Automatic annotation (TrEMBL), chains A, B:
It comes from Sutcliffiella horikoshii. Gene3D superfamilies: Guanylate Kinase phosphate binding domain (3.30.63.10), P-loop containing nucleotide triphosphate hydrolases (3.40.50.300). It catalyses: GMP + ATP = GDP + ADP. It is found in: Cytoplasm. One of its GO terms (cellular component) is cytosol. The keyword Oxidoreductase does not apply. This is Guanylate kinase. The keyword ATP-binding applies. ATP binds at residues 12-19. Its EC number is 2.7.4.8. Its main location: cytoplasm.
Length: 204, 204
């Protein structure tokens, strides 16, 4: 029987570049993580594909699934629902696969209450001014919305204490390297391996 | 001011290949660890160089240094003293350098009581029979000594619970990769970075 997989949760303030880092990470050949696609009621941005970037659903469908307790976590964020369907995650973990979630900060806190053994990674901007640049250059936001986002982002950064690791997103490739190292190190945690080696000692 | 460096402690049962892994690790260009050379009263093995592999000292000198409390840890093992001089380690950590110790299991437990913030890595053989092979093929031991070493090794493996990570030494290069990942991940630990980011939030 394979060991149970790791649940890796990447989160961080809006605008820090979670999606960019996640895509870069999954483009690497030596990464064997299973991406858990989130569900959302927001409209697709240009280039986003249903079933690849998100499952795009109506509010009615989403609320029905909440009723049926089919989410590990869900949140309403800037007027839209976001959530992680539970079935795929549970199945992968049981098969020994590492599951990767990229979610908003509110959602990560919910996941932690259900999966305290998960690995929680907080993606940080190099500075708050750089975060403002990134939010601004997305080019789709008004000034009021930018200021609102910055306020929310600061509140989100205050929630860093719930996380195991902080990864600076100064360069996407460096951030990916750090995340890969964290996953590899977590597989070497003594608390995860103790039982295996205890059996080895008893067997021989 | 630079952050304080990490103290990385590699240990594991006698014969598992700690010295081989350490040498391979330090031969890599992308590794910036500072190796803390141990002091010992045992005789040099073929090819071992004083001041590179160990500081080789007499029992009289070693016991004098114990009296003066000049060791982070020391132990008597199979009739010889082994110890880590304290001054070099403290200086490197204060300068923000990562210090790497490769020591026996007894010594690592002492280090943990003095440096609980250290990163403790236990090097494991793939199996006990493989460990016996490695002890035997060193070629310098009698059968009694081999059996004695195996008994000690099993007792050492029982002490794994004091460690943060377990790294399997199935292949030296893979073991090195795991250790490198652990060091990189530890630098991303939220508990080590919280203060830095708190200051960032307050400054802006």
């Amino acid at each position: 029987m394979r060991d149970r997989g790791l649940l890796i949760v990447l989160s961080g303030p809006s605008g820090v570049g979670k999606g960019t880092v996640r895509k870069a990470l999954f483009s690497k050949e030596d990464v064997s993580l299973h991406y858990s696609i989130s569900m959302t009621t927001r409209n697709p941005r240009e280039g986003e594909v249903d079933g690849t970037d998100y499952f795009f659903k109506s509010r009615e469908v989403f609320e029905q699934l909440i009723e049926e307790d089919k989410f590990i976590e869900w949140a309403e964020y800037v007027g839209n629902y976001y959530g992680t369907p539970v079935d795929y995650v549970e199945q992968c973990l049981a098969e020994g696969k590492d599951v990767f979630l990229e979610i908003e900060v509110q959602g990560a806190i919910q996941v932690k209450s259900k999966f305290p053994e998960g690995v929680f990674i907080f993606l940080m901007p190099p500075s708050l001014s750089e975060l403002k640049n990134r939010i601004t250059t997305r080019g789709t936001e008004t000034e009021d919305l930018i200021n609102n986002r910055m306020t929310v982002a600061k509140e989100e950064i205050e929630m860093m204490d719930a996380y195991d690791y902080v990864v600076e997103n100064d360069q996407v490739d460096l951030a990916c390297d750090r995340i890969k190292a964290i996953v590899q190190a977590e597989h070497c945690k003594r608390t995860r391996l103790r039982e295996k080696y205890k059996q080895m000692l008893e067997a021989e």
